[in-house]
Amino acid sequence: MGEESWSSSKPFLPHQRSSNSCSSWRFILVIASMFLGAAFLLALYFSSSSSATLLPHPVVILVSSDGFRFGYQHKAPTPNIHRLIHGGTEALTGLIPVFPTLTFPNHYSIVTGLYPPHHGIINNFFYDPITGDKFTMASHHPKWWLGHPLWETVAANNLTAATYFWPGSEVHKGPWACPKAFCQPYNSSVPFQDRVDTVLSYFDLPTDQVPSFITLYFEDPDHQGHLVGPDDSLITDAVSRIDAILGRLILGLEQRGVFHEVHLIFVGDHGMVGTCDKKLIFLDDLAPWLDIPEDWVHYYTPILAIRPPPSVDPAHVVAKMNQGLDSGKVENGGKLRVFLKQDLPERLHYSDSDRIPPIIGLVDEGYKVEPTRTGNNECGGAHGYDNAFFSMRTIFIGHGPRFAKGRKIPSFENVQIYNLVTSILNIQAAPNNGSASFPDSVLLPSS
Ligand SMILES: *[C@@H]1O[C@H](CO)[C@@H](O)[C@H](O)[C@H]1NC(C)=O
Ligand SMILES: *[C@@H]1O[C@H](CO)[C@@H](O)[C@H](O)[C@H]1NC(C)=O
Ligand SMILES: *[C@@H]1O[C@H](CO)[C@@H](O)[C@H](O)[C@H]1NC(C)=O
Ligand SMILES: [Zn+2]
């Protein structure tokens, strides 16, 4: 009906107006058909701009900005981040990372929904206690990478995933073999805009081939944060560049008519805190209580990880170290506390893996542990601390059809994101540490 009145009124109306002195019934008919025509056009407009979909399936783009401390979005004008905030759902006081607040453990928790002991990446660097093999950030053997990352879950559900960098994405697991067309091997030299443009090119494929799940990763502003700490113009500039690169992504999606259909999730992995010369603890200051050979220490700071040889009782090491730290004779001794891993606070979820050395030291915010005095300049930034510190928080924004506009939600741990993504994609999730009810509390129902 609408279509008929629209097509008949269009040529008829101007002619009627200019040359005929029409009777009132005819005038009413013309007005009525004009109204119906306008209503039809309006309906057409709204259906093409928001409710009609070009893509035959839900799509999630998960974007990570490394070391994007919560609050950085206010350091510089960030029109694109703010567009996502106003048009989407934001964690009002930031996203809580897992402990330790380091890059690899956190990125892998985001995509598996698991705490580090369960996904296996307990640090950026660690040893297999049985074989003695070393894990580094370049290790791609699947034996290290436990759990089921989103790209694997997506593939197991017969959907397509694409990764433009993410820790663990190059690892072949289950149905995921890091396919050439949709999985980029990590190369930090690739300009950010090339990464965005490649992701945008996926939306030029026939619509049924557009990947359901896409990751995108940027090293900034973590890189600058380590050099100068969180409060420096280098950070402000890096935040502006991240905002601009998000703008490029948004514009590209808009040009393809899919911005309002795609779910864009913008996160970071952890925050950043300033460190400086006076905030140091030297392990050799503990020599009067206990000698700690360097080969016992697997990681110094901000998470101290010690594995003494089997002949040495870890409980004895912990007792001696804390005795020294509490003595008042060790510089900044009160800023380091050493634990048997099973005695760490439960909320840290950091004991249930053989890969975690038996002795873990926690340092206060902004402090660092070093083997010995070097006199080197130590001012810069660090992360890896207790995830209860606000400085370790990062950002979470969700934008797209399932995220309410302008909604603020309380802070939550990043292990919830896995279920959020599987809910949006409407696929079967693997067991994980996120709560099954979380997606219902955050997402709008699917239409
Ligand atoms: C995926 O496809 C395979 C092979 O066609 C089929 O056996 C399996 O049931 C499918 N899985 C799902 C979750 O649809
Ligand atoms: C990494 O990316 C840069 C910039 O695109 C390129 O020139 C270089 O060849 C790449 N390196 C490898 C190993 O692919
Ligand atoms: C986390 O998930 C793993 C795998 O399902 C499970 O074994 C573990 O008990 C869970 N831990 C917590 C604290 O929920
Ligand atoms: Zn990081």
Automatic annotation (TrEMBL):
Keywords: Membrane, Transmembrane, Transmembrane helix. It comes from Flemingia macrophylla. The chain crosses the membrane at residues 27-46. GO terms for molecular function: hydrolase activity. PANTHER family: BIS(5'-ADENOSYL)-TRIPHOSPHATASE (PTHR10151:SF120), ECTONUCLEOTIDE PYROPHOSPHATASE/PHOSPHODIESTERASE (PTHR10151). This is Uncharacterized protein. SUPFAM superfamilies: Alkaline phosphatase-like.
